[in-house]
Amino acid sequence: MKRRKVWAVLGATEGLGPATIKYLLSRNQAVITLTHDDPTRLCDSLKAFTHHHGFIDILINNFAYALIDGLEKVTITSLEDQVNKSVYETLDIIKQVIPYMNPYSEKQVISIPPKPCILRDSGEPVYDERAEAVEKYCSGLEQELLTLDGKITYLASKGSRSLWRE
Q: Which CATH code is given to the segment(s) 6-156?
């Protein structure tokens, strides 16, 4: 029998979050849903959850949806600011989750791209400032994850990379 995995899902109420959670639960996986509303409550929730289910094996990042909200109205300068803000908000939460991830195996962080980056128009990918912003977000998050201790596998829309400091 396959080992039950323990998952954390950031941004569980948006985009592909609900479908991801439904799928994982249908496969009898342990899942905790996380938001960035209250850091103290987040730590308490992580402690209680991991005490009951064990260390988190995989962290799914679905927070990029916050990045694209209202993005059509921003300038190039504010687009960069919005991307950077989103990267650091996501990184803050990931930093809080990492101590609750399995210390005996590779830490896996998976980013789910927001809907505008996966929608297609007439069979062709839709590429606009939203897609560019998400690419920058994923790239920026990857660079920041490189600064963290421990080996991390980061999967985004362009494939996966194992990240670790030498």
A: 3.40.50.720
